[in-house]
Amino acid sequence: MNERLSEFLQERIDAGDFPSAVYLVAEKGEIIFQDALGYAVVEPERISARLDTVYDLASLTKPLVTGVLAARMTESCEIELGQTVENYFEEFRVPAACEGARGTSVVELAAHGTLFQAWRPFYLLVEDRDAILAEIVRTPILLNKPSVVYSDLNFLILTFLIERLRGQLIDRIADEEVIRPLGLSDTLFNPLSEVLFTRIAASEFGNSYEKQTCIDQGHLRLDLESYFRPWQIWGEVHDGNAYFMGGVAGHAGLFSTAEEVFKIALQFLPDHTKLLKPETCGLFRTNFTKGMNEDRSFAFQLASTKDSTAGTKMPPESFGHNGFTGTSLWIDPVNERIFVLLTNRTHVHPLPFVNINSVRRRFHDIAIEELE
After folding, report:
1. Predicted confidence (pLDDT) at residue 223 exceeds the cutoff of 70
2. 281-312 per-position pLDDT tens digit
3. Mean confidence (pLDDT) of the chain
4. Which one, of 252, 246, 209, lies nearest residue 55 by Cα?
5. 75: closest CA among 281, 271, 289, 264?
6. Distance CA 269, CA 115 (A)
7. Positive or negative CA dihedral for 210, 215, 218, 219?
8. From residue 86, how far is each of 23, 113, 151 by CA, in Å?
9. What is 122-173 written as a DSSP string?
10. pTM score above 0.85
11. Strand pairing report for 319-323 and 30-41
């Protein structure tokens, strides 16, 4: 542990930002600091957080699964970064497809440089997982969009692309190409089991955030109240679309521990990766959205983005990602440093949830001060 980091995070727990936090800071492939604080579960029972507590990683799924797999598939030439969606999906070639969606490349999907909307409640719009892509094709695009819009739709398209090319669901592909090769035992989709249950951090009671978003967007139908799960979400994915997809998706759905997130994170560093060619790791520090409102690389945000959660001390080519449930991962490729912070900010907290971006920035700044 590190006294300053642990004291700071305990202060935020005491302030009610989140009930638990597990952190890990590593340098040159070695873990330097780690600790677990607070309660991973407060209701219906109290369970303390541990170093091996399993968290719903939410959107960290995007880089840790979809980003890694897509990058591997560029190496095998199954995916070409510059190829457009209509070259992979006949759905985008039909007259019903939105014109502006055509011409969208794989790298634009991975860097969120597309015209797609940020989010849609597909569980209210289609009958099953197989119908989601067709609904995305019909979804109106953002006209005259001047900037990066972070979109789950981009990574849903990448999910279906990977699955079609490999002929399996993305959880099976991830298990074969990422999880088992790295010897991971606590990284998985759909973790609910008697063995793991008491080690899983709980999330929200019901999905009131998405319910309110649906109300605001005019989507809510009273006959579909059950889609917002009026029970304690614990051991199942918080994200509504990922839950609708059977817990298996490329934008959300992965669960893991801080140490196993660290082991996947090493794959983005050329001197430590076992899954990628060292030169492929350059994708994750390359700015593909120059001149736009965010600097985005392949599946990550760059620290050069104004107000990123990297803090004030990381090199600009550092890259990272946040998860809605309260998780984050940042990687400094210059100094070979990895920063993992896992919290469950949606647990036992009424709306609105605390925006913990300032906590993330301060955590990174303190960690770097302590390393140096």
Report:
1. no
2. 999 999 999 999 999 999 999 999 999 999 99
3. 94
4. 252
5. 281
6. 30
7. positive
8. 42, 17, 19
9. HHHH-SSGGGHHHHHHHSPP-TT--S----HHHHHHHHHHHHHHHTS-HHHH
10. yes
11. unpaired
